[in-house]
Amino acid sequence: MRLVRISILSLLLSVFCYAGFSQAYTIKMRMNVGDTFNYATKMDLDMNMPAQDMTMTINADIRCLFKVLPNDSMGFKQLQMTYKKMKMRNSYLSAHNSDSAMDIIENKFVGRSIVLKLSKDNQVMEVVGLTELLNNETNETYRTMAKNMFSKEQVSNLFGMMFSMYPSTPVKIGDSWKSNANVNINGINMIVDFTYSLLDVKDNLASIGLSAVISSSGSISVQGTELPLKMDGDEKGTLSINMINGGYMHNANYTMGINAEMQVADQKFAMILKGNYALTGN
User: Fold this and answer.
1) Which of 75, 95, 132, 252 qualifies as a FRET site for 47, CA 20 to 30 Å off?
2) At what angle do helices 99-109 and 140-149 cross, to 10 degrees?
């Protein structure tokens, strides 16, 4: 009987310890003033309109250096972002022999810096420095690209997830948390609801599962006109965070798939978007 009681007690104790005392991890960016970290983003995006037999491919290879600056007078976090590499290709532009022009424009961005202002939950609130980038610049193509590339919306597209993916409280393996973002991909406005799950912690790397739902109605901007666009899609993948090296992203890989329907006047057009993303940190 004593052995039975001891066995039952041991079983209860092990269950209690597993359920109540499994380790909780604090996963956040250190963001100490003076910290520097790199992020590289590679994107391959296919846009297909079957009824029009039209396909466009967009490829991007972008590398940025970030430096943490002191908070501003309003308490916003500040990050200096410098483009170290930028290579973008659009199959439509390539078909019209615009690659050389793109190279010239892209080279103008390398070495240029802007400052991102982040809220307490690391949402991109403002981009500072665009005016200085445009000073004395007469090339209208460059001015247009600069306004697009350095806009709050575009910066949020490229880097917003890297700042908003952190849980607000300590989490255990198996725990999940959520965030959402307004994004714009090639003129398409949409809302994305993210769910993150802590999969494992090994060798100071936190492995996190990513899933996102894109299910809201939005719009696409065509020559200044907003056209209604219904979307239904998702994002899936994994990412890892280096917990010992400032809590900055180590890498991420995820895919995106969207089925959309655009309305022009009384006609509706189907659109399919498929994207692959690979991000690498320090």
Assistant:
1) 252
2) 60
